[in-house]
Amino acid sequence: PAPRTILLTGAAGGLGTLMRGLLPAYGYELRLFDVTPIEGEPTAICADLADKDALREAVRGVDAVIHLAGISLESTFDKILAANIEGTYNLYEAARAEGSVRIINASSNHAVGYTPAPLDGGPLIPIDTPRRPDTFYGLSKCFGEDLAQLYWDKFGQETVSVRIGSCFMEPSSVRMLSVWMSPGDGARLFHAALTAEDVQHSVVYGSSANTRLWWDLTSAKALGYEPRDDSEQYAEKIIAEQGELDRSNPAHVHLGGPFLTDPPIWPY
Ligand code: NAI
Ligand code: 15L
């Protein structure tokens, strides 16, 4: 049967807030979880991923999990370790104990951030390109993907790991013209990941059908994802303001962009 009740971790965050707005239209009922309280949502579970009992209770009875909670930028190794590595492990253990529901896991382009961008018409970056994390943050996303593979191989627990590009209302840099995922396409991709059959552990890039796309969306489309948006409508304005990509700047010519040289630090 199609999944209906979904646990949304990280529901207070930027992407969580966008998905709270968009996913109910697909018929999902969302159970919200975040360490940050959410105004106007008295039933949201306000707990840390370190709280194993709260996670067990949160997962109990849902049909699937969309796991967005965690540190979403670079930070100290200790903080990344607690929130993203131990926190994701705690979620997987809770899900395994509660019937192994499918997890849609927010991975990131920063798991492969040091990969050179195909700027001059080179082939799109395949999904099985070697991992090249650009930060401790990206390294934690590599861990999440490997954890998902282990839980599939060992326990038959399904995951779709989505290497999200930049999911915001609009792209705000020349790099984002290549890696942007519109919120609408984000919801379409999560819906496809929730409803596709037999996903085992699938790894997919998450972005819109951008004219300047850097990576291969084949594995995402195999789930039934049909992106509708393209960042190109923003290109002229952004390039007029910021100029073309500078080939001598490492932050312009690798997938991970500014995370290579000047990573945004959490909390900020
Ligand atoms: P965000 O920083 O706005 O939201 C993350 C949420 O997780 C926050 O509400 C925070 O309170 C919560 N959180 C952090 N540590 C927690 C803990 N220990 N226990 C419980 N809750 C905790 O980040 P955003 O942009 O919404 O991203 C969501 C997820 O998607 C993150 O995992 C991020 O790494 C991933 N992602 C997002 C991208 C984007 O473009 N927005 C791109 C690539 C990956
Ligand atoms: C990410 O992984 C971050 O969570 C998000 O805030 C953006 O910085 C995004 O990558 C990006 O690469 O633009």
Automatic annotation (TrEMBL):
<protein>
    <submittedName>
        <fullName>NAD(P)-dependent oxidoreductase</fullName>
    </submittedName>
</protein>
<dbReference type="GO" id="GO:0016491">
    <property type="term" value="F:oxidoreductase activity"/>
</dbReference>
<keyword id="KW-0560">Oxidoreductase</keyword>
<dbReference type="InterPro" id="IPR001509">
    <property type="entry name" value="Epimerase_deHydtase"/>
</dbReference>
<dbReference type="Pfam" id="PF01370">
    <property type="entry name" value="Epimerase"/>
</dbReference>
<dbReference type="InterPro" id="IPR036291">
    <property type="entry name" value="NAD(P)-bd_dom_sf"/>
</dbReference>
<keyword id="KW-0520">NAD</keyword>
<feature type="domain" description="NAD-dependent epimerase/dehydratase">
    <location>
        <begin position="6"/>
        <end position="166"/>
    </location>
</feature>
<comment type="similarity">
    <text>Belongs to the NAD(P)-dependent epimerase/dehydratase family.</text>
</comment>
